[in-house]
Amino acid sequence: MALSRGLTPAHSGQCFLGGRISTLEETRALDRFLAGVERRAFRMAQIATGHDDEALDLVQEAMLKLVERYGTRDEAEWGPLFHRILQSKIRDWYRRTKVRSRWRLWLGRDETGEEAGDPLDAIADTTTPLADHQLKIKEASSALDAALRTLPLRQQQAFLLRAWEELDVAQTAAAMGCSEGSVKTHYFRAIHTLRTLLGNHWP
Questions:
Q1: What residue numbers bound the domain in which 169 lies?
Q2: SS3 labels along the chain
Q3: Contact status, residue 16 vs residue 22, Cβ threshold 8 Å
Q4: For the chain, what is the domain count?
Q5: Number of C-beta neighbours around residue 69 at 10 A
Q6: Does the pLDDT of residue 26 top 60, yes or no?
């Protein structure tokens, strides 16, 4: 899915990092980092919240906080710091908001209450080998998304940070605000559940 609005905070040559004006080189480095992480961060927030707009807002807020508070830190620290901010905001969102029910989709209505389009329009063309391959990829992706959303939040966070972002145990623990032992436990349980739920879709 293409992002519907820009995530990366815009700069005009200089910006304020940690209370001081940044150099052009620092700003460019930060821009590169944010551009590289934004899509994966959006997917993580999207899976956690189940809502595109909520996910976009959370990622944007996390990016702005990173720029304002930690932009002057060493570039190697930005990844763990950003994910710690993002996961904290996701946890706050969970405390404030109940995830909306998806049952209305089964009743032929979208989340706004409007009539949904003809479901037959969404069925892929399976008359060619390429279409069949694309359908399998789509099914696997949908199965993974659905399975991830069944996980408790902490297991979901541990799996996404370790498997998708490739953070090590210590970095994941810092991002989640918990011990390394807890990360290992959450990750192990997530893997076990996902392997069971995904079946043939498990890589």
A1: 132-198
A2: CCCCCCCCCCCECECEECCEECCHHHHHHHHHHHHHHHHHHHHHHHHHHCCHHHHHHHHHHHHHHHHHHHCCCCHHHHHHHHHHHHHHHHHHHHHHCCCCCCHHHHCCECCCCCECCCHHHHCCCCCCHHHHHHHHHHHHHHHHHHHHHHCCHHHHHHHHHHHHCCCCHHHHHHHHCCCHHHHHHHHHHHHHHHHHHHHHHCC
A3: yes
A4: 2
A5: 14
A6: yes
Contact 115, 108 (CB under 8 A): yes
- Rg of the chain over all Cα atoms, to the nearest angstrom: 19
Q: Is residue 33 part of a domain?
A: yes
Identity (one letter) of the amino acid at 162?
Answer: R
**Strand 16-17 to 20-21 pairing:** antiparallel
Q: Dihedrals φ, ψ of 202, to 5°?
A: -65, 130
pTM to 2 decimal places:
0.60
Q: Are residues 25 and 82 in the same domain?
A: yes
Question: pLDDT grade, residue 199 (50/70/90)?
Answer: confident
Q: Is the pLDDT of residue 189 over 60?
A: yes
